[in-house]
Amino acid sequence: MTTATFSKFLNQGAGVTGRQLGPIKILTFIQNGVELQFSLAADARTRYRNLKPLQWAGTEAIWLKDGPLLGGKWRVYRNGPGTGSDNPEPANIVNKGNMIAYWDSPGPNVASFLGANPSQIYVVQNFTGWIAGDSVHGGTRGERLCDVAAWHSVVNIANSSWGTSASVPTWQRVHGDRSGTGWVDPSKPPAL
Fold first, then answer.
1. CA 147, 149, 151: angle at the middle one, nearest 5?
2. Does the pTM of the predicted model rise above 0.90?
């Protein structure tokens, strides 16, 4: 019998966490707000305790473009397997009844790139999320209770004032900015 099932990925509208979904800009962070929802079997809370969502940050890359938006050159700023364990903060979790949901908001802090002065930043981050719990009958603690849900966040932003050294960067989202289920290949920058 299945104990938990991934049921919804939300990146717009309203979710049960009450947090902002979709494009978010907070100070110098440009992010994608998402909510993952998991359904629990009717007897899940009687068979397991300490039910909670867990998340893993998988492959990721940050690409920077030098020069004009049309025709500039991309370079890899950072590329790797991800940071590993990236569990949701308790304040971003709803855990009640037959549902567990969590909110996340991946994306870059553009203040990190002030010295680089790129004309464009392309960030790919891949994740997996699932529900874990401890059996009331003993056994494995933190047992995975469902298949992992693979999801991604891509932030693609352009700096319209990149050519002038004294100006403050003005970041705008461009084509290819998105979030969704499944993973995105971080080894390639966008075509444009």
1. 160
2. yes
